[in-house]
């Protein structure tokens, strides 16, 4: 078996890790991982054939030639290799955790820091036990600030990520009701994300904290340096929303001046995400005009709070994911929008465990507080709950109904958990 330093020597010659033979490019090192559908060891021969420089396996029978490197556990080897690589870098590493808005905040920060630094950030949503090591191993050598997104669904996971990433700086976007199945309760969510703060306390790091969030302020106590942002005048970087229809505009006090921040983001919940990026930019000395440009340039992608004009309707396409906190934020934001004909097309919220039924009841209660033109719900979680709204077992049947209605002139919020793929309703 080879050791991590030996594996690292191979990686230095071929600095590209790959876990998927279908995407493999010649020269990459292929790690054979076991997943819910496949065992990567089935694709060792294919990876070698496609030109993998090396293949990392944890079964002696999968060693087909001298380009196959045997380790005790391929996933663990990937993670330890990534950790080893990170430890060679003497640059700031900012870790981003939290229930909602991690990817948006990360992308805004990337956009701001890239105006001035060789900033590198997690590609897409690679935020888990496989995505984080792949992120670290894909970091260009010229990087001088790294921004790493961390997505967890059980207690203990954030600390494991911190052990791998060794963040010098950290940011928890918020504490909400995400992944309640794994976290158990909102107390569990708090405990889980507090692990990033624990790590910063132990290592005497720096945290970016939203001053308006009393929970985060309390949880982050004891971190040697806290750089705060928010609406509160007490925050180191303080601002307010001056326009929110449809795109947010903020007025922010920066270095004694009132500065207008234009964005291409909708949803008041994005205020904190934007403020976080401004604070991070200011902390690292990005000049104000570049902070403005970095924020203004960012357009949300991939079904995250996107504004789509289609077939005579204005859609807020927010179908990337859903949990009780982000649903509440999206619905309240939509309810406050100045429009005549508002329609909700909502999918169920997944991974809520024992809280699923009560949270879907609570969602119905929230919806019922506002006057909508129409409400249609998809997903079995809504089936056993009494409500006066249109119900469909899945997104496909909701889509068929929606297409048959030929409604125009409406504002439509489309949101639901990833597995429902609610974007199909309008695509
Ligand atoms: C393991 C892997 O990378 N799987 C990807 C793969 O899946 P596939 O359908 O092929 O099946 P397997 O996973 O069983 O495959 C096993 C391995 O075999 C490889 N393989 C398969 C077929 C083949 O012909 N050749 C092969 O080499 C395969 O590549 C595996 O290595 O493909 C899918 C489609 O592209 C991928 O979706 C799948 O990716 C998995 C889900 C993954 O974890 N990818 C990471 C890079 C990642 O970061 N993904 C993020 C999603 C992260 C996320 O959900 N975050 C949550 C929090 C999560 C907490 C954590 N505890 C957890 O449980 O994950 C959040 O809330 O944000 C992303 O892609 O967006
Ligand atoms: N600050 C926020 N508060 C509440 N909801 C938010 C906030 N920011 C974003 N959201 C909601 O979360 C959705 C997903 O945003 P984003 O991808 O940035 O979050 P995430 O935390 O990275 O999600 P994931 O954990 O799935 O990767 C958005 O489309 C929006 O509905
Ligand atoms: C897609 C994944 N990152 C996520 O957010 N999952 C929750 C359960 C969702 O899809 O709503």
UniProtKB/TrEMBL annotation:
Catalysed reaction equations from the record: D-alanyl-D-alanine + UDP-N-acetyl-alpha-D-muramoyl-L-alanyl-gamma-D-glutamyl-meso-2,6-diaminopimelate + ATP = UDP-N-acetyl-alpha-D-muramoyl-L-alanyl-gamma-D-glutamyl-meso-2,6-diaminopimeloyl-D-alanyl-D-alanine + ADP + phosphate + H(+)
Domain Mur ligase N-terminal catalytic, first and last residues per copy: 19-89
Record-level GO cellular component terms: cytoplasm
Binding site for ATP: 98-104
GO molecular function term, any single one: ATP binding
Enzyme class: ligase
SUPFAM superfamilies per UniProt: MurD-like peptide ligases, catalytic domain, MurD-like peptide ligases, peptide-binding domain, MurE/MurF N-terminal domain
EC number: 6.3.2.10
Chief localisation class: cytoplasm
Mur ligase central domain mapped to chain residues: 96-280
Superkingdom classification of source: Bacteria
Biological pathway: Cell wall biogenesis; peptidoglycan biosynthesis
Entry keywords, A to Z: ATP-binding, Cell cycle, Cell division, Cell shape, Cell wall biogenesis/degradation, Cytoplasm, Ligase, Nucleotide-binding, Peptidoglycan synthesis
Pfam families, alphabetized: Mur_ligase, Mur_ligase_C, Mur_ligase_M
Family: Belongs to the MurCDEF family. MurF subfamily.
Free-text function comment from the UniProt entry: Involved in cell wall formation. Catalyzes the final step in the synthesis of UDP-N-acetylmuramoyl-pentapeptide, the precursor of murein.
Protein name from the UniProt record: UDP-N-acetylmuramoyl-tripeptide--D-alanyl-D-alanine ligase
Lineage: Bacteria, Pseudomonadati, Bacteroidota, Chitinophagia, Chitinophagales
């Amino acid at each position: 078996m080879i050791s991590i330093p030996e594996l690292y020597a191979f990686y230095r010659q071929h600095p590209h890790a790959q876990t998927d033979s279908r995407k493999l490019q010649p020269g990459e090192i292929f790690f054979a991982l076991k997943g819910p559908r496949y065992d990567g060891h089935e694709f060792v021969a294919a990876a070698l054939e496609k030109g993998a420089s090396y293949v990392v396996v944890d079964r002696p029978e999968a060693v087909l030639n001298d380009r196959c490197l045997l380790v005790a556990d391929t996933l663990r080897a990937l993670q330890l290799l990534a950790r080893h690589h990170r430890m060679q870098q003497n640059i700031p590493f900012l870790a981003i955790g939290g229930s909602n808005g991690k990817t948006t905040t990360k992308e805004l920060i990337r956009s701001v820091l890239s105006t001035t630094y060789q900033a590198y950030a997690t590609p897409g949503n690679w935020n888990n036990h496989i995505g984080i090591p792949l992120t670290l191993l894909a970091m260009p050598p010229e990087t001088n600030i790294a921004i790493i997104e961390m997505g967890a669904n059980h207690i203990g996971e954030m600390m494991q990520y911190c052990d791998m990433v060794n963040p010098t700086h950290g940011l928890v976007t918020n504490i909400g009701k995400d992944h309640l199945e794994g976290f158990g309760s909102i107390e569990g969510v708090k405990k889980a994300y507090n692990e990033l703060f624990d790590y910063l306390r132990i290592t005497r790091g720096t945290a970016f904290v939203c001053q308006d969030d009393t929970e985060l302020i309390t949880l982050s106590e004891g971190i040697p340096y806290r750089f705060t942002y928010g609406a509160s005048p007490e925050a180191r970087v303080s601002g307010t929303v001056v326009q929110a229809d449809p795109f947010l505009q903020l007025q922010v006090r920066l270095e004694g001046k009132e500065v207008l921040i234009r964005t291409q983001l909708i949803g008041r919940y994005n205020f904190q995400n934007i403020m976080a990026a401004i604070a991070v930019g200011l902390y690292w000395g990005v000049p104000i005009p570049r902070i403005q440009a970095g924020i203004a340039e960012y357009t949300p992608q991939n079904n995250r709070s996107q504004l789509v004009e289609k077939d005579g309707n204005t859609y807020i396409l927010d179908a990337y994911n859903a949990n009780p906190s982000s649903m509440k934020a999206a619905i309240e934001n939509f309810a406050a929008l100045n429009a005549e004909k508002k329609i909700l097309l909502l999918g169920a919220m997944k991974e809520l465990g024992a809280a699923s039924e009560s949270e879907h009841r609570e969602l119905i209660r929230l919806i019922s507080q506002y006057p909508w033109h129409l409400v249609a719900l998809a997903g079995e979680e809504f089936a056993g709950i009494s409500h006066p709204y249109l119900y469909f077992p899945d997104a496909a049947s909701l889509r068929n109904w929606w297409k048959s209605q030929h409604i125009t002139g409406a504002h439509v919020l489309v949101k639901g958990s990833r597995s429902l793929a609610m974007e199909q309703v309008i695509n």
